[in-house]
Amino acid sequence: MAKKKTLFECQACGHQSSKWLGKCPNCGAWDQFLELNSKQIEILKEITPKKKDYLGAIPITQVEQEKIQRFSTYDKELDLVLGGGIVNGSMILVGGSPGVGKSTLLLKIAGNLAQKNKKVLYVSAEESASQIKLRSDRLQSNSDNLYLLSEIRLDIIFDELNKNNFEVLIIDSIQTVFSDNLTASPGSVSQVREITFELMRYAKDNGVAIFIIGHITKDGAIAGPRVLEHMVDTVLYFEGDSSRELRLLRGFKNRFGSTSEVGIFEMTKNGLISAKDISKKFFTRGKAQSGSATTVVMEGSRPIILEVQALVSESGYPNPKRSATGYELNRLTMLLALLERKLDLPFNQYDVFINIAGGIKINETAADLAIIAAIISSFRDRPISKDTIFLGEVSLIGDIRDVFSLDIRLKEAKSQHFKKAIVPTLPLEEIDGIKCYNIDEVPKLIEWM
């Protein structure tokens, strides 16, 4: 009698093993291995891509490049993140925390496309058609070309797609769709993997653009196996606090464009719209106050002026507190150690808090000089002029180093009527209306202040 073959699968990452394991060697999760039955094992064999006939290697110069065809979403910010628009036959995964606006954004995009004569199918496995219609009325997205389907079964979704020849499909969400080929529950690794594979195969064979919404875990990662992010063409993450109006859409993977761009949206009473004037949403002009400095960061090709806020207060504990919102905490600790070493400032006796106004996160080092300026301003209770910006990366030895796209940053500062710029090197061409001061080390910043 043949020995029964067993297969166990991690429900956190999809790693497979011939025996049960307490801890997954791939993702480190505990007690996540479940045994697959014989039917599930056969299904996995069927959905595993078959090895193609070997054609041999060819020189890259002989490869014919396929022309990528795009169409606009009629939303400037989303087009920017996607690299110019939606590519025919692409799969786009949108993740984000609950209530951030994923469904609102995609329903608005569905309405835009439907009003431009694109046939769109919006599949919601979590909400009824009447609930979606209520949101669509608020977003003004109603159109005869926008179809709603409240269904969780994958075969019925495919029947609708084949019946009406839709050009765009939106799945809300991938973790709630169910395939009858597997007995596992919706959202499990097996279900998500098979559904994603079937949707991807349909998208490539029929040229249908597919958006899928993914739930995220408490750690901020998209729930389900990592293969979900590997299989799709584009991965977008929606960031933002539900208590704030601004939302950021970042690209973490894009096979058809850059991942450096970021889309900025604003939540209004009429839904999520592209932020038309973002230049004044992250800083304020008014009376100069201690602990406030201004800098310019680059989000892709877009310069954004940010206000850096610092609060330095005497600590009543042996270990002073360090807190950073929107800025890397480890880098803040490094800058404080540098100030103690170079300037003999006793920050080991003070609590230091840093906040980036507007809820945005700084992912580059060009704001280091503004961070130091704000800290010293708060420590000495000396206000900094609201007409001044600080640009520069601070090294471990106290040097202030150049930043990329300096001219673009300075032109943005000029457009917002800033008059002074503290920079490590002077720009290649003089910009009228803004005076640049060259500072190449941290002690000189103290002299200037």
Can you walk through the features of this model?
This protein is 27% helix and 25% strand. The protein has 11 helices and 23 strands. The chain has helices at 38-47, 76-82, 102-115, 129-139, 154-164, 189-206, 227-231, 329-343, 368-380, 406-415, 442-448; strands at 7-10, 16-17, 33-36, 70-71, 86-87, 91-96, 120-124, 146-149, 168-172, 209-214, 234-239, 246-254, 262-268, 271-274, 292-299, 302-314, 322-325, 350-356, 388-390, 393-394, 400-401, 420-423, 435-438. Helix 4 (129-139) links the parallel strand 7 and strand 8 (146-149). It starts with 6 loop residues before the first strand and ends with a helix. The mean pLDDT is 86.
Concise synopsis of the structure shown:
The chain is α/β, with parallel strands linked by helices. The chain has helices at 38-47, 76-82, 102-115, 129-139, 154-164, 189-206, 227-231, 329-343, 368-380, 406-415, 442-448; strands spanning 7-10, 16-17, 33-36, 70-71, 86-87, 91-96, 120-124, 146-149, 168-172, 209-214, 234-239, 246-254, 262-268, 271-274, 292-299, 302-314, 322-325, 350-356, 388-390, 393-394, 400-401, 420-423, 435-438.
Characteristic terms for this protein:
449 residues; alpha/beta; Rossmann fold; Ribosomal Protein S5, domain 2; 3 domains; 9-stranded mixed sheet; 11 helices; 27% helix; 25% strand; globular
CATH homology group of the largest domain: P-loop containing nucleotide triphosphate hydrolases
Strand order of the largest sheet: 8-7-9-10-6-11-12-13-14
Percent range for helical residues?
A: 25-40%
In total, the number of strands is 23
- The gross shape turns out to be globular
CATH topology of the largest domain: Rossmann fold
